[in-house]
Batch of 2 targets.
Target 1
Amino acid sequence: MSTDDTQEAREQLIDLAAQFYDQFELGEIPHMSVPTRTKNNIEYDEEMDVWVYGDRESTRSANSVRGARKLLKAIYTIEFLSEQLEEDRSSTLRELYYLSESWDNNEAQFNDQDESNSMVEDLEIVSGVTREDFHMRPEESGATIMGPLFLREQTRRGEREIHCQEDVGEGGYQIPNNPDTIEFLDNDADFILAVETGGMRDRLVENGFDEEYNALIVHLKGQPARATRRITKRLHDELGLPVTVFTDGDPWSYRIYGSVAYGSIKSAHLSEYLATPEADFIGIQPADIVEYDLPSDPLSDSDVNALESELEDPRFQTDYWEEQIELQLDLGKKSEQQSLAARGLDFVTDTYLPDRLDDMGVL
Amino acid sequence: MTSFQSTLGEDAGIAEELAESQQSISIAEFFEKNKHMLGFDSGARGLVTAVKEAVDNALDAAEESGILPDIYVEIQEAGDYYRLIVEDNGPGLTKESLPKVFGKLLYGSRFHAREQSRGQQGIGISAAVLYAQLTSGKPAKITSRTQGSEEAEYFELIVDTDNNEPEISVEETTTWDRPHGTRIELEMEANMRARQQLHDYIKHTAVVNPHARLELREPQEHFKFERATDQLPEETEEIRPHPHGVELGTVMKMLAATDSQTVSGFVQEEFTRVGKKTAESIIDEFRDRHYGREMRWRPPASHEAVDLHAAVEDATANKGADATAAFADAVAEAVADADRIAHHELVAAVESAAEAVEDDHGTTFGDTVRENAVEAVWLELIDAVEADDSDESEGDVDSRLVADLYDLADDATSTRKDDAVIDAFADRLAAKFEDELEGGDEDDGNVRHRLTHKRLRDHVDRAADLTEEYDDVSFGETARENVTDAIWDVMATVPDDPPLVRELDGDRDATSNLVDAMRGTDIMAPPTRCLAPISEDLITAGLEKEFDADFYASATRDAGVSGGDPFIVEAGIAYGGDLPAEGTGEVMRFANRVPLVYQRGACATTDVVKSIGWRNYGLDQPGGSGLPNGPVVIMVHVASTNVPFTSESKDAVANVPEIEDEIELAIREAARELKSYLNKRRSMQQRRKKQNVLGKILPEMAEKVAEVTGREEPDIDDAIARIMNNVLVERHTEANGDGTAVSVVVENNSSTNESLEVTDIVSAEPRNLSDGATVVEMDGEWFVKWEPEVSSDDEAALEYEIPDDATFDLDVKGVESEKLTVKQ
């Protein structure tokens, strides 16, 4: 992070405040327009190969009491962020929420963290500055990398050079909040394997899958944090490694894959920077449930709704996904990654993954 | 038993003995014992009733003579008793009528009049006199002065209960300061426990009689209710009775008294809304009921072996072949042309055929020939020709009546009924028609098949019963009714002349038929000039006068009719202001402008108010039914020539569906206005709330924005006016040579057009006023008046010039303060 960037981010924020000022002066109703962040308002950007926001906008306007409160909160947040940048400090999203309690104006305080998070997203979109450049970070997600990768991380306490197999414990290398502070030095990796659950990641590490297949095992920890997606994107773009995603076989997990590959709906303004459209889905595919006769649970009503809503999600409107989702709706079943253990602890590393990766042309 | 019997037998004089103790009772004596019937059941109530009766009379008397009523009521404590004094400025009573009005029950001018008035029976005030004399033993003291007379008459009298006549103890002339009017003073056993009802009565009377001035002085309090209008209620006109509202006894009396000769004249003369046409309809209905209708049978179809031509020829003797044939042709043709034909229609057809043939052939067709022809054809039509001995299978062939009735019955009953069942039924019903030949008063029975509706129904019932019995099927009430109606519909009203009035007079059955006929005829609703509704404006004025509320609404319905009496329902609602916000709302009930203060629960008005879902109209109603809660007064006025009360004491309107419906509609009409008022108020409240919140947030936001950007605080008034969709009135001043140019700009940000009244008070004389503005000088100040109409999202400007150093003061009206932002 250069001071220039910091200065620019600050200027962007103050411009935003000035915009409100001018609106007041012109006798206009102060307002701020942001793209609507719903799945109905994302569209495919053919040039970038990612999903970005469409033309629909929602306006936060002082016309209503609610809108006015929102704008008041926005200007307080702008003040806070610009002060933070001036002092070159940083804070977490959660800290922002608690910090608002100290503001002198009750109306400006956030009611919950969702509200402050979405305010930061609004400001990101409107100012065109990412939240990392506002020096806002999420809580540590604790996502890790394990594999043949040598890198240098710029920490607040100086540079560290780390090999992600040799210099780390079984837990692996922890991805920092701003992966842009990392420089890749060397690697022996053939591909990236992003894994949803901790249990499966530990199984792969225990079975030595990373060593045997030269895989970089990225632990997604559920819905991946921005940093996890960003580093995955960088590993793909800068080192030319194919990306594969291994999750449970249920609708919620497909969304995890979706956010790695196409970007998430909430951060579609950053898709270009976070999404790896070339990422491939390994499984568990609905077809695998049949093929490997995996232990399964019946789909709940909310699962069915989620699947049906995915059929309408523009990100999933490909032949592959439509086929898989419809198959799953027919089956009425879902399976977890770890259900592969039904065929023995080594089945996943000895059979399932090699077979699938072979099919996909990764191996 | 036997012993008792024998005792009776032995003592033959007991009936006589009993008879000795039987005697007639005077009406006064009756009410003496039944005081509660007239509202004098307790001392508390007796006082209220006495006030009510006296005030009602006073109002009626003054209004009738076109005088604006001015009524004074005083209640004094007089030892163990209470003294009631009621004075009015009415026309006064003559020396002759005064004692009877106050000292005789059931004496009055109103009982027979169909006209809206407060009193009706002529019981009220004399009952009060009776009550006073019974409880205190003191006579009523009455003073009355008629307009223009030098002196007033003074009476002291009581009601002689034995013969219901006034008994005068003092009769003298006296002086009185009122130029005309009546004063009554009664002393009675009473108490003031019903003080609240008394106040209610007076106050409510003031509400519905905004043209009256009322004053009440009682031992503890003193009220004055001033007039809200000088407009007397419209004078009512007496109307004749409406045919739908009279009873048999009344009609019998009217028949005895009328000058008319004919029924037609009678109904046109004596009743309202009956003209020539309606009279005819009534007479037709009367004929149907009195004489019955004649069955119309279908003429024979071509395939039937009925030769009417031959029948006529056979019946006509010695008239020459040509004439006979022509006659037969004409008759047969006339019959065949008819859809159906009744006996009297056949008679008419034969008459005209005979006359036509007489003209053409010069042969005379006398009455006998005509009658023979009618009989021959009719018997053919009803299949009643005496059977030839040679006819082999007469018993098995169904009469042609059966086929006719079969079709009628088949159409009238549900399709589920078996053909065979209908056929059996038609067969039995036809037999009943055939039986008519044997019965009846005439020599050859009721050959004309003339039946009243009732007799027809009896036949249908009998035939249906037999069918049920023998064919083991059900032939229900509805089916019977439908069949009866279907047959009745094809039957023809007979042309017989109705009896003359003198024939009807005394004939109870025939008169009863006439009353039924009148009720069965559609007749226009009675005219409403006999009613004097208060009118919407005056209801509002009355409510405004007595209740300090925020909102008033009223509704007057069009007249309706119930039992021949026209009625009008009016409703009013007052809301908010100083009305008590706690507890249930108040319901004020009125009948013919008289407040009803007792028996609230038994009154149709209360029932209707309770049945309305007040939540729909923005009022609080616990449980969604019952009286609404909150600061609301609901008033209902029922005006009628005969308000149906639940009892003689006239406390509650009876539950008559027609009246209840109108009450509901009237209340709903007023309630709709209340709703839109409440909605508007609510939206203004929201607007105020929004303005309060935004009025806090936006300046804070502006302050913060200024802080972050490091600039001066921005001016946010314009933005706020826009946000609130407000009307912004803003003054701009600009130096202009040696003076100042002033412009007052109105910017309408609301979604509706706004009309404003802008007054700018300037301390120097304004020049070059823009169009539409006027200026008036007053004590060194100039009032610039300007009344622009600004449409939504538009602007208008007032411009003028003044010398330097002037002060301004802007005053804007015409826009709710919540919607207005004024910047001086």
Target 2
Amino acid sequence: MPLTREQLAQRLAKEVKPGSVVNLGIGIPTLVANYLAPDSGVFLQSENGLLGIGPFPNESEVDPDLINAGKQTITTISGSSFFSSADSFAMIRGGHIDLTILGAMQVDQNGNIANWMIPGKMVKGMGGAMDLVAGAKRVLVAMQQTDKEGHSKLLKKCDLPLTGQSCIHQVFTDHGVFKIENGEFVLIEHAPDLSVQEVLAATEGQCRVSPDVRPIPV
Amino acid sequence: MASVSKVYHSAAEALKGIDHNMTVLVGGFGLCGIPENLILALRDSKMKGLTCVSNNAGVDDWGLGLLLQTKQIKKMISSYVGENATFEKQYMNGELEVELTPQGTLAERLRAGGAGIPAFFTPTGYGTLVAEGKETRVFNGRNYVLEQAITGDFAFVKAWKGDAFGNLIYRKTARNFNPMVATAGKITIAEVEELVEVGELDPDQVHTPGVFVQRIIQGAHYQKRIEHKTTRNHN
């Protein structure tokens, strides 16, 4: 069995260093917040103008002026700050965000990512994703290994319009954890219930197996 | 007090001089911090052929979605429009022109527009569709795309508190695009939840100085809709 979304989020939480400033995308990345230690000192950035996202509010705390980038109601933590969208993207583009974790439709072996449109089918827009991949110090992707039709999302070359070029450092899927090095994926961890061969079979792009490959601890 | 008052008594009155085919900048992120009274007045003005610059396009029945329903918008410049089925339909049919701009680039294009900067280089979007047809340049070994500033005939801003000179204070994440939008309009109209006398706001707390605001109204009514109400118990 591949990892559940929750197991994947739990694995990703280990990538978040104590005291770091992190922007989490919509979907699986958002779940990562649930697995951060309360005393980790991590500040989560919301691109609509908040540094220091807190938990979802109690009924009585719901405030229409306080939302995250997914337009959900939220709260703030102690030490948080509000700012404009221009300041928010000065943080993002200016290299002040330590880590971002984003969802994706496709990633390829050269570290390109596509996650904002399917020509003729879906147009939602890139939101802040193009700025995040251009400016965050470390850019990770969290996604399913395959799409709904079972096609690999780890490709030789993205065929959807790109969000960014050569910008992805690592890919975390329900099948495994991949580094991207010298134009190929490197499998460093695999889902404990899947063999390395099974993971490779679901990877279209060129993929090397690290000599230190190990099961994802869950 | 200023000799010519900036205070207007209704959103409709504040729209004086608006015309067909104008460019209107609109603050807000999703439905948070949107100038709801001014959007309603713009709908009622029946102006058509508008170019609207706003991070999002509202939802089907609120925010800028209202102006899509009435087909008053010819072109949208936005970063994310995924919450709006009317938008997607009109775009796919070719009824609506759309310029998708990365969110940070949009914020900076507005900031630049208000700050007298005609264009700037950004790393965002290099090597993507967004950079097509645009000048690129290498600085310190990295590729950048030239992006142009945005200004508007009108700019609509929503703030929490404002005074009769147009000084504005925003609240929490309802600030978002409003400060940049305020600077980039030929005529900037601010609507506020609470309009106070000049001198009542603490100068240290003012986010948008009144010089950027030409007209100000106290919003008649605020719905402040929530797109996704999410609570702790719920999860």
